[in-house]
Amino acid sequence: MLTSLFAERLHPLTWRFLLFVEAKRRMGILRGIGVALRELRDHEAGIRRAHVTSALPLSAAESELLAQRIARKTGSAIEMTAAVTPGLLGGFCVRIGDQLYDLSLAGALRTVKQNMIRG
Q1: Mean per-residue pLDDT for 56-76?
Q2: Beta pairing partners, 82
Q3: Residue 20: is its pLDDT beyond 90?
Q4: Which residues contact 15 (CB under 8 A, 6 or more apart)?
Q5: 22 CB-near residues (< 8 Å, 6+ apart)
Q6: How far apart are CA 78 and CA 66, in angstroms?
Q7: Residue 107, burial from CB neighbour count under 10 angstroms (0-12, 13-18, 19+)
Q8: So what's the pLDDT on residue 17?
Q9: pLDDT-based confidence at 119, cuts 50/70/90?
């Protein structure tokens, strides 16, 4: 089945790699392999991925401006993805790797609540 689907469409090295993964019965982790390879490529190219979650959809201009500001702050080229979570109430959250920058109204309200509880 793999031969009929991919043999003529893939670079020979990629095709041999796919056959190797199948021979080791590891096709279930192929997506993870792809993610790891993309992360290595991004690291070598100096690209960081940012995931932005906002309360409302961002316009193209807002997305571009935010990507520019994130790039300036991190000193890296940025590839940004966006999602909408109305529960944020307003503002947005930016996740870059394992760092989360919560600039949402919901996050600010949580901080105020925690500060009031502490005294």
Answers
A1: 93
A2: 52
A3: yes
A4: 6, 7
A5: 2
A6: 10
A7: middle
A8: 92
A9: confident
